[in-house]
From TrEMBL:
It comes from the Bacteria. InterPro entries: Rossmann-like_a/b/a_fold, Universal_stress_UspA, UspA. Belongs to the universal stress protein A family. Residues 1-134, 144-273 form the UspA domain. This is Universal stress protein. CDD domains: USP-like.
Amino acid sequence: MTNRIVVGITEAPVSRRALEWAVQRAADRRQDLELISVVGGAVGAVGERAVIEQAMDTSRQMLEAEALRIEKRGVVATVRVERGNPVKRLIDASSDAALLVIGSDYRGPDSGPERGAHGVRIASGVRCPVVVVPDVDVSGRSGVLVGADGSDVSERAIAFAAAEADRMGETLTVATVWSPIVTPHNPGVYPDDYLRNMQALAEEALALSVAGLRQDYPDLAVIKHVEEGYPSAVLNRIAESARLAVLGSHGRGAVARFLLGSISEEVLSRLATITAIVR
């Protein structure tokens, strides 16, 4: 794996937000950028080749102009223009990258139906962390949020989130969301001692998950948050005021590699903030 950040660039306005996030991250961590644009939609029509070649030339000129602008900020940037399926090409391009950054046209809950099928497919297929940037202005927000459930991938998500919070000079909120057991014919009424014990167990698990952060980041402010509820709903609610949210993906094996897991997918479909998915 290289120390390179791959950024998927399109003509959509949100690409500017995604690129700016990636440039700042690269500058802070002394990483290089690779800007990639993919020209798709070929169907084999007569005269199509000339249209595609023109689109590729235009895309290359756009990327080269961006690379020059970025290099003035002290970040090395290369460009690549390809043709084909954008999802597949971005997945292939990120195979040895440190991070992939892509944009999403989602503008929040008032902007229409759920979106992000391409983002979910890309995030599901790559092996490196993926940052998905919605078309939302996060200036004025503060803090980094990470979801924790005690799994190995959750530990990696916490490590990623802690490094980002430290880089950004932000407080890290580590959140665990638990739900009571659902059984057939359950009226939804639970004994108080059961609910207290579930809360206590979640708090203990969360404490273990963050125990090593103080040693690695002595100056990092960490907030531990434990709440009963549905995970994606709670995490998105908290993320509405955060600069960055981080989640782990539970895909396993050759087939499961393309499955994010319901929570990650639900969060990506209704992005509340810039969101990183870590495997």
